[in-house]
Amino acid sequence: MTTKLSKAERTRQFIIETTAGIFNTKGYAGTSLNDLTDATGLTKGSIYGNFENKEEVALAAFDYNLSKVKGRIQQHLDQANTYSQKLLVYSDVYRTFFRIPFIQGGCPILNTAVEADDTNNLLKDRAAKALQQWKKGIIDLIKAGVASGEFKEDVEPERIALSMIALIEGGIMIAQATNMPTSLDKVLKTVELLIEQLKK
Questions:
Q1: Which end of the chain is more exposed for a tag (fewer CB within 10 A), N or C?
Q2: Domains of the chain by range and CATH?
Q3: What pTM did the predictor assign?
Q4: Where is each HTH tetR-type domain found (predicted)?
């Protein structure tokens, strides 16, 4: 049974969904109030009647974009049968940012972490938390793979997790900066090799 949203909740959700791609593309500093009113067709008063300020909209937009990434990953994780296949999901999903874009502007973690590094502590903390959760998810899969006998016992879960994340996010950054999606493909092959080396 689904709970029916109130009019205020629907308006708030509409603002988040409509502006999420703008924040992810232009960044917090680059997104103006006019961008928000133009995109939503709402007045400044309507937007600030639902959110305290632009930062609160940006945080909600980040959460929304991140939930789309997590949802796509979880969908593929549920379909994978082995732990190596589950780890390969990250490579497969992040490859689609260029092939079949499902979020306007690319990876929200990378975009937010880079922009908010020295300018917005709340957004920086959100990105850091997302990275920690991502790392934990990979570590848990590797440990489960070791326990099941699929992976070697001497693997270092945290090192592998950090390496995978760094390669994926670095590959996306290079591909975006150079406008060459094939760069990401090459980096993701290294991720896949890393996963292959975990197997017994």
A1: N
A2: 7-196 (1.10.357.10)
A3: 0.91
A4: 9-69
